[in-house]
Design goal:
Bound molecules: beta-D-fucofuranose
Oligomer: single chain
Strand content: 15-25%
Number of strands: 12
CATH architecture of the largest domain: 3-Layer(aba) Sandwich
Order of helices and strands: HHEHEHEHEEHEHEHEHEHEHEEH
Number of helices: 12
Structural class: alpha/beta
Low-confidence stretches: 1-32
CATH topology of the largest domain: Rossmann fold
CATH superfamily of the largest domain: Response regulator
CATH class of the largest domain: Alpha Beta
Radius of gyration: 26 Å
């Protein structure tokens, strides 16, 4: 393909030189070299990426990973659209990428439901769609080529196992549950994990439950309300680090203690750099990892597709959990996000 383009370009250049020579009369024809940058631009693989937004540290790290991977130097042209948490904007972006005839469409879907129509249009245009991070619900699996992300239900189960170890299964617990963006896979899976723990451990009660939309500001607001309403909270089950930071502000202002040796045990998710610092400081008791570095994973999928191979339809990322009692500075230093 590259060779064909170069031959055409070289032939075009020769014609141009000949015609310049014939009409200019005297003097040598000016040297016309192929526009190399133009040639390279034509060979780039175009990737349209519809990102959820910029709601959390996790999300920023995810965007950074995609930007660092899909560079021109690596052979890509990345068209990144930030949907500011709006599914409508994501659908618009998918339609734009389809109209632009992108080589690949990558979507980090804000919620699970409601993608079929836009994905069908992409499929009809012959554009492979890669779903990343959260998952979609569809009755037709052929609407996407593959998915890579986390097992959110398993993350929830890991968090519950930490609570069982800490309190024992017959403990009486009053749990405040701060949920992420409703309808997102990360919220659904982590909530399901907790629900399973509550059904199993009969002394566990979810005293308060509300969504903080994965943001620090809303996490603080929701926690303020919860603290005003309930005197006894044993565990804050918080579906991401940023909401935990907001909740900590609310607890500080209300003079409620938390973390190691505190009144309220905090279980959080993501284990971002700042989240791990808070874990090492003993402010967060347990932090379940969620890895946002999907850029290279998506690129590997694209490489396989370019080579005519069939990548795995679904790929889960390996993840761990950090405990305030055992985390080390080395764990934080090893963190790339
Ligand atoms: O946990 C949260 C972000 O979908 C895994 O979204 C992602 C979640 C992550 O806003 O911080």
């Amino acid at each position: 393909m590259k060779i064909v383009k170069w031959i055409l370009l070289a032939a075009g250049t020769c014609c141009l030189m000949l015609s310049l020579a014939s009409c200019s009369g005297a003097g040598p024809a000016p040297a016309v070299t192929p526009d190399e940058s133009q040639t390279e631009a034509n060979n780039l693989i175009t990737v349209g990426f519809s990102q959820v937004g910029a709601e959390s540290d996790w999300r920023m790290a995810n965007t950074k990973s995609m930007k660092e991977t899909f560079t021109e130097a690596n052979g890509y042209k990345l068209i990144l659209k930030d949907a500011q948490q709006s599914q409508e904007k994501q659908i618009e972006a998918i339609r734009e990428f389809t109209a632009q005839k992108a080589d690949y469409i990558v979507v980090a879907p804000v919620t699970e439901e409601g993608w079929d129509e836009a994905l069908q249009e992409a499929k009809d245009a012959g554009i492979p769609v890669i779903i990343v991070d959260r998952m979609i619900k569809t009755s037709d699996d052929s609407l996407y080529t593959c998915w890579v992300g986390s097992d959110f239900r398993k993350e929830g189960e890991t968090a519950v196992a930490c609570m069982e170890n800490a309190f024992g299964s017959d403990a009486e617990l009053s749990i405040a549950h701060l949920q992420g963006s409703m309808g997102s896979s990360a919220q659904i899976g982590r909530t399901e994990g907790l629900q399973a723990g509550v059904s199993k451990n009969t002394g566990w009660n979810v005293t308060a439950r509300d969504s903080g939309d994965f943001t620090q500001v809303k996490g603080k607001e929701v926690m303020e309300r919860i603290l005003k309403q309930y005197d006894r909270i044993d565990v804050l089950y918080c579906e991401n680090d940023n909401m935990a930071f907001g909740a900590m502000e609310a607890m500080d202002e209300a003079d409620r203690t938390y973390g190691v040796g505190g009144e309220i045990t905090i279980v959080s998710f993501d284990a971002t750099h700042a989240g791990l610092v808070a874990t090492l400081e003993g402010k967060i008791n347990y932090n379940v990892e969620c890895n946002p570095l999907h850029g290279p994973r998506v690129e590997e999928i694209i490489r396989q597709l370019e080579a005519g191979n069939t990548p795995n339809k679904m790929a889960y990322v390996d993840e761990t959990v950090f405990d305030a009692a055992t985390i080390t500075q080395g764990d934080i230093d090893a963190r790339a996000y």
